[in-house]
Amino acid sequence: MNDLRIIENDLVPVYETNTGEKVVYGTELHKVLGVKSRFNDWVRNRLNDCEAAENQDFETLTKNLVNGGRAKDYIIKLDTAKEMAMLERNNKGKQVRRYFIEIEKKYKAKPAPSADLQNLSLQLQLLIGMELKQKEQDAKIAELTDKTEQQGKTLQNIRDTLFSEERDSRRWVIKCIGEIVKSPSFDGVFNRYQKAWLESYERLNEKVGEDIDEIVDREIGKAQEAGATRAQIKKISRQSVIASKPILRKAYTEAVREMMIAYCVEVPNDEAI
Q: What is residue 5's three-state secondary structure?
């Protein structure tokens, strides 16, 4: 990540690499967040919490100081820096995360619309196929509900059925993301999976009119008030929250379908949602 040039400096300085990647310096992020702990301890802990990988999500460098000493710093990709800010769980962290989201929106490249009628026809075919699959799935859920009521199944059995549906939905999404990153139409060279997941959440935000990260924050707050353990709270993620709420799950699968259409990818035939 050489030849950095600053592109935004309203809150945290944001830089662009010669490959177009948006990054921040760890020391500058630490300073703006107002973290009380030592930088070296904080940055290692936060990168570990985000499961960030060196040379993929961040790089390290050593800087020469004015007094002749040397200090270690980190060049962190914007996606990872956004998660680090969110983990502070305070107003400053939320402010910084929203700032990063606005920058992502500002510099996000919009794919040019295709004038190829054959591709347009393929997209329409995919859309029709996806809608049929959704209707089939809705009918399946309704049938399961009717059978459950008629047979007098217990509440636990109903929950088991819903859990199976949630699990299948997540498997379907993972497979779709895997196909999207392979598409020549998908823009991105570095960490394509991370870019694809991020776009899926942004599309979800637009559909529900609320940031999924803020919904996760609320669920974590509720869990903390209920006395949940640290291990239980750590399991609360975007995907777990989406899976637990039918409205979010339906909106999210619709968002993924839109991505499949946008990048001319066929829905995996061996998975249904």
A: strand
SS (H, E, C) 11-76: CCCEEECCCCCEEEEHHHHHHHHCCCCCHHHHHHHHHHHCCCCECCCEEEEEEECCCCCEEEEEEE
Does position 52 have pLDDT exceeding 60, yes or no?
A: yes
Single out the residue of 62, 88, 89 nearest to residue 75, CA to CA. 62
Domain span including residue 219: 117-262
Look up tokens 């559909």; give the residue.
207
- CA–CA separation, 260 vs 254, rounded Å? 10
> CA-to-CA distance for 132 and 86, rounded, in angstroms?
38
Domain count within the chain: 2
Instruction: Decide: 255 and 204 in contact? Cβ < 8 Å.
Output: yes
Is the domain of 142 the same as that of 186?
yes
* 190 and 138 in a common domain: yes
135-182 pLDDT tens trace: 666 666 666 666 655 655 554 454 444 444 555 677 888 888 888 888
Which of these, 82, 241, 75, 221, lies nearest to 170 by C-alpha position? 241
**How do residues 25-48 score in pLDDT, each as one tens digit?**
999 999 999 999 999 999 999 999
Dihedral sign for Cα atoms in the order 253, 258, 262, 267: positive
Identity of residue 16: E
Give residue-wise pLDDT tens across range 86-138: 999 899 999 999 999 999 888 875 444 444 444 545 555 556 566 666 666 66
201 and 230 part of one domain: yes
* Domain termination residue (choose one: 79, 107, 135): 107
